[in-house]
Task: inverse folding
């Protein structure tokens, strides 16, 4: 067996022989004489004269007596694999088992494995794609994507979506957390990111997210979502859509890797928060901390690069884009509308009527014509009910017995809107007047929340409990006085004297009497 060292020595001696042949040829020695002198064929002499480098040795074609009969079959199976999902392509073991079971081949697995490993790259399976490093000019490009993560919301393990817009030149990431990846979150993520960056990149790269693309066409063509087209037109940027699947992931590799980096470094372990607003505050602080990081392969921090990029971004338009999705729904008999499998209350006078809905990523705004009749925080869990006690007061006046067990009351207590002072005052009213009359009197105070501040009414209820003057009208009057002061100031009797004045004189009017005409 010839070793690599022996092959190297042989090649070196061949080059030295070529050098000697060329030297003698320049001295006038003929080709025939050179062939005789160096014991080589005249073809070798001519090759040395034409090129100082000896031609590569042709490898001898060896027969494959064992696998030879099965080569065509194996090649066909591997070629067919080009058209199927990578997870369902033939392994060498599967090729071997099929040869044995379907064709009765007597061949070792090792022999098949060696051939499959050599043949795969030649057919085009498992080849490594070569990437070209790109230069990103300031303000030229951005990348957008969503990524999943988990956090604890009021102690409940909750799934959320992390929106990221990354400015390609500076590497600045801009994140926002949402409980949905719907159109409203996708659009609002853009709006918030543009405002935080202070401008808009000229082109933004996307994969084929549903809020942006309704259908993938040939090549780079896409049927785009109408709301996305409005967003793009409003801010004046261009969109670039990557190839579907893993083949296009590298075309926006910055944001693909950025979401994973952010999740590992700032969302591990899962944060504990009481609201989405608190979570997004933590995320924004993390984005600010990223300004001090130097990305691998770069010479300046993200913050320094961002300062240089900002002047090249497209300016923000005067008006903010409204990212809410417009819907409509009919109010049911429980005075609710159903929005994305969750229920939200509206005032009871709208029961049976169709209302308009502006669905945002964090809020649900309900309108009767042009008038906003309800604003709710968006629910996270399906089939949730978000109910406001105030919306049901007109019905509770007729059905006071429904108040104690109502879901709206339970949620008002959980949200801190219905305080301990409310409950104590209600209990005092029922004790002094009875359950039904006491509840009706209490509803009068609840109705007063529409025109008076909650803090003033709470203080007035506490004063009423202390004094025993429980009449709801007295409570309302006390609350109004706390806000604006008493209607007429009380003046101590001993201070009245200093305001005394002499009786006015009518002498000047008497001088006018002669001027009066007599009849």
Result:
């Amino acid at each position: 067996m010839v070793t690599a060292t022996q092959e190297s020595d042989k090649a070196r001696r061949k080059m030295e022989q070529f050098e000697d042949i060329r030297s003698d040829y320049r001295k006038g020695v003929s080709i025939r004489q050179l062939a005789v002198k160096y014991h080589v064929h005249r073809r070798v002499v001519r090759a040395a004269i034409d090129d100082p480098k000896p031609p590569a040795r042709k490898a001898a074609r060896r027969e494959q007596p064992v696998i030879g009969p099965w080569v065509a079959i194996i090649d066909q199976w591997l070629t067919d694999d080009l058209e199927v999902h990578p997870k369902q392509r033939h392994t060498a073991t599967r090729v071997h088992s099929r040869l044995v079971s379907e064709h009765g081949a007597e061949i070792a697995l090792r022999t098949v494995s060696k051939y499959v490993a050599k043949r795969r790259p030649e057919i085009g399976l498992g080849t490594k794609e070569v990437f070209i490093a790109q230069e990103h000019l300031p303000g030229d490009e951005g990348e957008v994507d969503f990524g999943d993560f988990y956090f604890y919301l009021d102690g409940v393990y909750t799934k959320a979506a992390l929106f990221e817009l990354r400015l390609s030149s500076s590497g600045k990431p801009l994140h926002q957390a949402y409980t949905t990846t719907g159109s409203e979150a996708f659009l609002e993520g853009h709006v918030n990111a543009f405002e935080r960056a202070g401008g808009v990149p000229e082109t933004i790269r996307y994969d084929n997210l549903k809020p942006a693309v309704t259908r993938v066409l040939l090549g780079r063509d896409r049927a785009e979502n109408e709301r996305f087209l409005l967003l793009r037109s409003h801010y004046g940027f261009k969109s670039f859509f990557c190839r579907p699947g893993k083949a296009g992931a590298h075309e926006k590799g910055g944001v693909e890797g950025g979401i994973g980096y952010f999740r590992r470094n700032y969302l591990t372990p899962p944060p504990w928060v009481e609201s989405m607003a608190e979570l997004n505050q933590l995320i924004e602080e993390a984005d600010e901390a990223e300004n001090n990081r130097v990305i691998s392969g770069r010479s300046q921090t993200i913050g320094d690069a961002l300062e240089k990029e900002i002047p090249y971004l497209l300016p923000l338009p005067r008006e903010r884009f409204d990212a809410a999705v417009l819907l409509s729904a009919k109010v049911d008999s429980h005075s609710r509308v159903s929005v994305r499998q969750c229920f939200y209350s509206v005032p009871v006078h709208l029961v049976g009527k169709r209302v308009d809905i502006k669905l945002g990523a964090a809020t649900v705004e309900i309108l009767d014509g042009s008038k906003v009749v309800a604003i709710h925080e968006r629910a996270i869990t399906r089939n949730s009910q978000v109910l406001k006690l105030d919306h049901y007061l007109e019905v509770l006046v007729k059905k006071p017995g429904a108040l104690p067990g109502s879901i709206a009351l339970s949620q008002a207590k959980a949200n801190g809107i219905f305080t301990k002072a409310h409950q104590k005052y209600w209990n005092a009213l029922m004790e002094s007047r009875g359950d039904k009359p006491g509840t009706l009197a209490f509803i009068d105070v609840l109705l007063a929340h529409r025109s008076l501040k909650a803090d003033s009414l709470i203080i007035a209820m506490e004063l009423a409990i202390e004094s025993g003057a429980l009449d709801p009208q007295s409570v309302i009057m006390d609350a109004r006085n706390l806000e604006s002061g008493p209607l007429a100031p009380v003046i101590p009797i001993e201070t009245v004297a200093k305001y005394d004045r002499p009786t006015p004189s009518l002498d000047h009017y008497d001088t006018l009497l002669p001027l009066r005409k007599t009849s």
Observations:
- The mean pLDDT is 85.
